[in-house]
Write a structure and sequence with these properties.
The protein is built from 4 helices and no strands. It has 107 residues and is mainly α. The relative contact order is 0.15.
């Protein structure tokens, strides 16, 4: 469980220190990638609390979620559709579910 939390902390700190500006063309891709990463980290925390955390599953899920979300966004851009909203809604729902389960674990 320490690897996902450490990665999240390092990513946030690097983002604050480097002051990276994302162009408008890549804003959708960045939003989808950030939500995919957050979903994976919260899923890893929940799995650790449930006692079923596996580092291989975390890494593969992290990479797979990011690739599928970016591909969906790319295909939507080429078709002129807002397919990135599908990924945003899905990751948003999963993030809220994971946070709710983590909260229930501590209560």
């Amino acid at each position: 469980m320490l690897l996902p939390l450490a990665g999240l902390l390092v990513g946030v700190l690097l983002g604050l220190v480097l002051n990276v500006n994302v162009s408008f063309e890549f804003a959708r891709y960045s939003a989808v990638a950030i939500l995919a990463a957050l979903d994976s980290v919260l899923g890893a925390v929940r799995a650790e609390l449930d006692g079923v955390y596996d580092n291989r599953i975390f890494i593969s899920g992290f990479v797979t979620n990011a690739i599928v979300a970016v591909l969906l966004t790319f295909i939507g851009d080429r078709l002129g559709l807002d397919l990135y909203l599908v990924a945003l809604i899905t990751f948003g729902l999963r993030i809220f579910q994971n946070v709710a389960l983590i909260r229930r674990h501590f209560l």
